[in-house]
Amino acid sequence: MATMRRMEIAADSLYKAKLIRGFCHLYDGQEAVAVGMEAAITKKDSIITAYRDHCTFLGRGGTLLEIFSELMGRQGGCSSGKGGSMHFYKKKSGFYGGHGIVGAQVPLGCGLAFAHKYNKDDAVAFALYGDDGMGTAEWRAAKSPSYYKRGDYVPGLKVDGMDAFAVKQACKFAKEHALKSGPIDSSLSLRLPDPGQSEHFRE
Fold this sequence. Notes:
The protein has a three-stranded parallel sheet with strand order 2-1-3, with helices on one face. Strands 4-5 form a two-stranded parallel sheet. It is globular and about 55 Å long. By secondary structure, the chain is of the alpha/beta class. Helix 7 links the parallel strand 4 and strand 5. It has a domain of 133 residues: Thiamin diphosphate (ThDP)-binding fold, Pyr/PP domains (Rossmann fold). Helix 2 crosses helix 7. Helix content is 37%, strand content 10%.
């Protein structure tokens, strides 16, 4: 977690120095999610997320060199310097990227989950998205097309997203549930600063 925080602080400094062009979406204050999740799953499992993807990529086995190369548009980056902050990718580790379109990763995550189920490989897919991804057309497109199944119950967990140990236990439970019974929704709560302050915590 300390490496992730220091990486994001360094990325913020590079962005302010105009050495990172375009967007730079940081993950400060959310490191417990990436760390806890990685402690509970394997590289056979798939993760797909939104545009705050630096720490998730690092957790999936990415290197700091790949991260900073990508952020600065260098060929050694994880997307050959063409994706920038929002489009990290590492297929061999089960990381199917960050996505700049809000909610676009949800239907792709459903496809990854279906692929795992179809291949019977004892792996699961985690599709990560924030509150703003709930009301998008992309999210609605991921619903079951079978109207008679739309009332099916999908259980959920509410988890302290600031506690890496709680996230680990929740992800472990979610994986076991998904393999035995089907999908599960987990809400990982994060505490954000007061309005008017910086978007992410620095301490």
